[in-house]
Write a structure and sequence with these properties.
Strand order of the largest sheet: 2-3-1-4-5-6
Order of helices and strands: HHHEHEHHEHHEHHHEHE
Strand content: 5-15%
Helix content: 40-55%
Radius of gyration: 21 Å
Number of helices: 12
């Protein structure tokens, strides 16, 4: 137990940290606090790198779209929050669209997303994207078979046009196991501040797990390509998923002052993998 007398013996912050480390095996609170401290110590330098990266994006008039896809409760929103936490809000946006209006339903499917694409010097984070039509919509019956087929034919061409217009698309799939998803659902329902996150679609997530898997695999095989690849993030550990996805984005660009805040910018290949047919996925 950490008493007042013990605290008074500490002269520096490192004394407290060393005490917690030495006693973490006996106290689960110490272990949790230590894990959070170590996570923050790694996160803050990466966020400083993101600030330098954003300055470069603005200076060079780059157009960056980062897509976050995955099953419900896979950690997409929490990761986006850590990406944007210290960025200039004038040069970054988060896009999380509601269901389409009656007017939008009669438009070309990509219309509502085109107007959300990044302008020069801007980073846009898509909390779900046009890929709703690749997985969620067909599984839940929100689109017809013809609409799904048309989308799967058009989306590679759509993304190739964006590539030719110098819009850089980074596509993340956050992969969470069925057991971990269920645990997170239960945790949400017990938290008065997070109940709003649990939707009817979430409720069907476990029941329709295999259908989601089938459509997810079709999406990968038909929309993964050299100019717009899918990157699979093992997100059973949310903190690691956040850190490694930030590293992945930073590793792609040669921005000014790169590495001045954090030297280790290469992502862990056990957490971050480019999709290929035998990629180990935990949400199969």
């Amino acid at each position: 137990m950490l008493t007042k007398e013990i605290l008074n013996t500490f002269k520096k912050q490192t004394d407290l940290i060393n005490y917690v480390k030495d006693n973490a095996h006996e106290n689960p609170i110490f272990k949790s606090a230590l894990e959070k401290y170590e996570y923050e110590q790694e996160l803050l330098p990466l966020q400083a790198e993101l600030v330098d990266f954003q300055h470069w994006v603005q200076k060079e008039n780059k157009k960056i779209a980062i897509i976050f896809e995955g099953r419900d409760a896979s950690g997409k929103g929490g990761t986006i929050k850590r990406f944007i936490e210290h960025l200039n809000p004038r040069a970054r946006r988060v896009v999380a669209l509601n269901k389409p209006t009656e007017i939008e339903k009669k438009q070309w499917y990509f219309n509502r997303y085109i107007k959300e694409l990044p302008n020069a010097g801007e980073i846009v984070f898509f909390d779900r994207s046009w890929y709703n039509r690749a997985v969620v919509e067909p599984v839940m019956g929100f689109c017809s078979k013809d609409q799904y087929k048309r989308f799967m034919i058009q989306v590679p061409e759509f993304e190739h046009m964006l590539y030719e217009s110098e819009t850089i698309i980074i596509k993340f799939w956050f992969s969470v196991s069925k057991e971990e998803q269920q645990r997170r659902f239960e945790k949400r329902l017990k938290n008065a501040l997070k109940k709003w996150k649990f939707s009817p679609v979430d409720e069907k997530g476990q029941e329709l797990w295999d259908e989601f898997t089938t459509y997810k695999n079709q999406m990968f095989s038909r929309t993964h390509n050299s100019f717009s690849p899918w990157v699979v993030i093992n997100s059973n550990d949310k903190k690691l998923a956040r850190l490694e996805s930030i590293k992945y984005v930073l590793s792609l660009f040669d921005y000014d002052n790169k590495g001045s805040n954090c030297k280790a910018l290469l992502p862990d290949p056990n957490i971050v993998q480019r999709y290929f047919r035998n990629t180990a996925q935990i949400d199969q």
